[in-house]
Amino acid sequence: MKGVAVTGMGIISAIGRNIEETQNSLQNNKDGISFPEILPTIHKSLPVGEIKLSNREISELLDLPADHACTRSSLLAMLAINELLEKSIWPEFPKDTGFISGTSIGGIDKTEEHFFDFKDSPEYRKYIQAQHPGYTTEKIAEYFGLGGTVTTISTACSSAANAIMMGAQLIESGKLKRVIVGGSDCLTKFTLNGFNSLKILSQKKGRPFDQDRDGLNLGEAAAYLLLEAEDCLAGKSILGRVSGFGNANDAFHQTASSEDGEGAFQAISKALKKAGLSPVEIDYINAHGTGTSNNDLSESMALKRIFEDTLPAFSSTKAFSGHTLGAAGAVEAVFSLLSINNNEIYPNLNFKNAMVETNLEPVIAIQENDIRTVLSNSFGFGGNCTSLIFQKHG
Amino acid sequence: MKQLFIRNSVLIRNSKVLKNGQLLMQEPEDLQLSKFLKNIYKERKLKYPKFFKMDRLSKLGYLGAEILTNGQIEDENTALFFANSASSLQTDEAYAESMEEFPSPSLFVYTLPNILLGEISIRHRLNSENIFFVFQDFDAGLFVDYVSTLFSQGKTENALCGWVNLHNNDYDVFLWEIALSGGIDFNEEELKKLYLPTHE
């Protein structure tokens, strides 16, 4: 059994503030889709996957000083990584722990909040640098005292999946023994208005892979995994392995996916090859499945091309959490590892009718099965397609 | 480690276009960037209507790649390795301004630097390795390390590299090809010389 071991995880999203709450929501069909209450937007009727904690409340939970300059994405990440740390064997992370964080939004929330104050109020100018995504990662690293390899990946909706892939590569190559990988993104006016301007936000709860799907719900989340090298594992429980990964460019359109899903097809093919698996060995696919007309068709075409007549059970879990952009790959990595550890598949909510073009039916009610191998897809703007494969340990 | 070579290079800077050190085009210094870009497109007799939909960062990258490769990338496995310091900030700002009235979808789609990689991949049908770094300054060492690693791992036999920076309409474009043969030795010193020639 080859691959990089996952020995810890932590998550916060609209369906739970830790692993237990998340698992409970997934097992009981409890989605986290609501109307925005924390995000100061005029679009009060657009459903979102919002975490109902203000920045002030999170700061209190984290016991941060009143004058901290953390972005919302960094606050969410601190909660998720705190969970990871609390469940580990350490009081604090060892010094040689690397940190790779994916984000699409970085600190745009702070620019939105304070842009008009910069000129006249010097006390807000500390937020000017927050726009850069690396700032959010540095704040998280500072909070946990992570001083080694620290880097940020921003490739839109595949950011966290790419962070996991990069972490796995650093461990495989022996550059790192231990690395925290994942991603964090919060809701902002920038993205809500942007996706709305592209007319790909649903006015209702998202319905991935349904014939009548009409768009996605944006969400916010932070999720992180601890990856460790073989020689660090003594006595630790292993949640699973990252055994395959692949990335390819779809080379079709700035934001839309190609009709035949070429980028997805190549990313999945590379991941299977890396893991040394044939398609029939995949037990479950956690699809990208945003719920937009374009993605779900393109992804279905790619799946049909890879798996032909033996498509394994698949579902998109974005109807639970919303599409959490740069965090999605890590959120779904956590869901995939829960599937492996609990031997259950979490359903594709709100699905009624299969698409006429492909006639694919996702899993729509929780299903118990021996789950040894999960494929998880994340595709981002710019044609950046990434697939990861998680496998059961032993 | 395999010996690698810089095959061709392009600079777009100060209203000038240079290829392999030779001046291809020179426009008045005070010419607006949008006009300069359009003039390059016309002068090079390009026919790619998608150009007109691109943001300026992507236009700079697209034009640089066209001039560098004469519009043809033969190896479909050519890796793309790009970087800049201002990310997509100019378009981010333009989109944020549009939010005051009506958020512009055509601007929103360009609020990521990896859209530039997408545009070049679309133009040349590349599903290959690609990455876009955001650095403080042009970092020749990182280009050399990263690209050499890609080659030594056997992931590619050709690479198209670029520094495409744009902020407040100040632009700085430097593109070059890396291959297993022909041209100048690929190392930090040579790359710095090409990026900042001491004579013009």
From TrEMBL, chain A:
SUPFAM superfamilies: Thiolase-like. One of its GO terms (biological process) is fatty acid biosynthetic process. GO terms for cellular component: cytosol. This is Beta-ketoacyl-[acyl-carrier-protein] synthase family protein. GO terms for molecular function: 3-oxoacyl-[acyl-carrier-protein] synthase activity. Gene3D superfamilies: 3.40.47.10. It comes from Christiangramia aestuarii. It comes from the Bacteria. Residues 1-392 form the Ketosynthase family 3 (KS3) domain. CDD domains: KAS_I_II.
UniProtKB/TrEMBL annotation, chain B:
It comes from the Bacteria. This is 3-oxoacyl-ACP synthase.
